[in-house]
Each structure stands twice: as C-alpha cells, then as structure tokens.
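Hey Z.,

So I finally got round to the iron/sulfur cluster thing we talked about over coffee. Here's the setup:
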Amino acid sequence: MHISTRIRLAKSRVRLSSLSTKAVVVRNDWTKQEIQNIYDLPFMELVHRAAAVHRTYFDPSEVQRCTLLSIKTGGCVEDCKYCSQSSRHKTAVKATPTLKLEEVLERATKAREAGSTRFCMGAAWRDVGEMKDRKAFASVLQMVKGVRSLGMEVCCTLGMLTADQAVQLKEAGLTAYNHNLDTSREFYPEIVTTRTYDERLKTLSNVRAAGINVCSGGILGLGEKENDRVGLLYTLATLESHPESVPINALVQVAGTPLGDKGKENELGANPPTATEMTRMIATARIVMPKTIVRLSAGRMSYSMSEQALMFMAGANSIFYGEQLLTTPNPQVAMDNELFKALGLKGKEPFSPIGSSMTERIVNDDNSSSHNMMMDSMAVRIDHSKSKRAVA
Ligand code: SAM
Ligand code: DTB
Ligand code: SF4
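And the result:
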C-alpha cells in the first residue's frame, strides 16, 4: 500500500475511534417493559444513547432521499381515520385513475436527477385484488421493472398482498414493500375498522417470504397514548426479522377526516406530535432496531431545521424529498438542499450495504472502558460480530 494511503487510513482510524463504537447485537427478544424503559429515559440521555447506537451500523452524516408518487389516488374503501384518500371521508382529494407507465418513469427519472435513490409508489387500494384489478397490477409490475432499470431502489405500498402477488413483485424487481402497522395492536381498532392488525401482519409475512425488504412503521399523533407508541415498536422489534425500514410519520391533519379538525377536539384528541415526541420515538426505534433505516416520513412541514437535526442525531436516516408526499405537502426541495448543506449531510447510494461503513472499520479499535460502560448500561448486548447486510 502506498505510504500516503496508509497515512490517510491511519488518520481516519483515529477520527473514527474517537466517534467510537462496537457492534450492537440485533435482538428480537425485547420485552415491552425494556422498550418502555428506553422510551422513558431522560431526553438527553436517550438521544445520546441512540446516537451512539446509530454509529455502530450507519454513517451519521448519511441520509437517504426518497421520492413518493401516488400512482392511484383517492376512492379507497378502507376507513383509516387519518387518511385523505378514504371514500368514507369528505376531503378535497378526488379519486383519479392509475397513472400511465410513461408518466411514472418520467417522474422517477426526475427524482433520480434531483438526488433521490429510492422511488416509492403508493396506491389507495385496500388490496391488490384477485380478478378485478389484474390489469392495474400488471401495470404496477411494469412500473416496478421500469423504475428498477433506472438504477433506483423501488418501494410500493398498495394495501394487502397475497403470497403470490408478493412473488410477482419480487420477480419484477421490487426492493421493498411499505405496509404500516400505524400504532399498537390495542389502539388499532380506534383508527381502522375495515381490516385487522393480523391482516396487516399477514401481508408483512407474505412480503418477507417473497424475499422483499419490509418497510413498516407508524404514525404519531392519532390520539394514542405513549404506551401505544411503545406497543408499536414492541411488535416491530419482536418480528422474526426486523423491518429493513421503519417509517415514523407525524400526523398531517387533513380537513374532512375524523382526525382533521384543527382548533377543536376531534374524536380521538388527535394532535400532531411535538418535535420532542418525534425524536423520542425515533431514538427508541434506533436503539431497539439498530440496523433498520428509520425514515423520518410525513409531517416534516411542522418541524424546523434544528428540530429535524435532532431527529437525525437520534438516528433517523431517510427523508421524503420533493414537494408532495402522496396528497399532502412536503418541504420545498430548495429548503431540503439547504438542510443538507447546513448539517453537512450526504445522500445514500442506492443498494449500498449497511453494517460496514462504521462498524467494520472501528470494531476492535476502541477499548475505552467508559464507552463499554455506556453501552452495557443501554440494555443492548454487545459483541464483535462484523455482520454485513444489504439494505434497502
Ligand atoms: N393504501 C395503502 C395502505 O394503507 O397500506 C398505502 C397508502 S397509505 C397512504 C401509506 C401510509 O401513509 C399509511 O399507512 C399511513 O401510515 C401514512 N399516512 C396516510 N395518511 C397520513 C396522514 N394524514 N398523516 C400521516 N401519515 C399518513
Ligand atoms: C409512509 O409511512 N409514509 C408515506 C409512505 N409510507 C407511503 C406516506 C405518507 C402519506 C402522508 C399523507 C399524504 O400525503 O396523503
Ligand atoms: Fe386507503 Fe391506505 Fe388511506 Fe387507509 S391509508 S384509507 S388503506 S389509502
């Protein structure tokens, strides 16, 4: 090795070792009480611990930019109380037909040019359907193939999937499937009555069995209690394999939905979460699912740059990029570019592995006893494994 390369590597080791860290074992045997204890830590302590865990598998300056596109908007038969697209609620959203392949590919190409490395297509469907939606599903498969051929990670959220549909999506090149549990099993029936928590879990297991990465998270601000937030994390963190992605959404109140009334009490006392509440949830997710990409999702319009910085510090490492989510607004691209610049953040390459960027380089580098004590006290077990896993 050339001497200058060796010097550079040695310098970077010193830098990395001061950031420090050892591999954190991924656990699936959390108890609800353990997660509650983490969630209840004093805020500064919680963020500090989450930031330390974050560095074991991720480069803390890397935040993935993803772009969302609603490929079929509105007219949904489900009754999710927060959603602008349910036909049960009178909102400003009009039902529109499925987008054409060309338009989708054009939007994905623009997203890639702007710096997004993941493209997520959403449809307001209860499920993909057996017979009636065959044509629509065939066109989604084409969209998946097309976006994948652009070199982007491709995610879809289309409602419930059968095992066979999941396999077809996998064969078309789907990277990940988004299907949120939204909240705890106990609170779920207050939010959705047209499907069950177990149906949601069944789709997640169909997705997993097909070899597609799982993206599943929730929403804060529905009127849930703190133990419902812990309950959601408990379900996700005790799945056989953790989801590769966990989106944390802040409720975006939509006029006409049962949770949309501003200024007066809506039926569940729903209220968008404060930045501190979002950060607490993100930090807890980061600690209990250390290798998962925690996606700071809907609701960023309500948070300042410094509030979002705190969320990245606590372990969030993805945002939706582009001025529209599915039907609601998202920060201007120029604002997000400024956010990245101010915080020295960089985007994530598509399909890049996690588990190597920090861990491999620093495991065994740091024998500091104060660091070990800190990690021991976190109720996370420590080992020196160098596991590597492709994410997306
Ligand atoms: N119909 C599909 C489904 O429900 O699985 C996919 C689309 S749905 C809009 C995707 C996710 O967006 C929901 O599961 C929910 O977590 C989130 N979401 C929808 N409306 C929201 C809102 N008003 N505020 C925050 N998150 C929202
Ligand atoms: C997720 O958890 N959040 C995104 C994505 N998965 C599909 C959707 C947010 C939707 C926010 C409300 C809207 O724009 O309609
Ligand atoms: Fe339909 Fe999904 Fe909205 Fe529920 S969240 S109403 S399933 S589009």
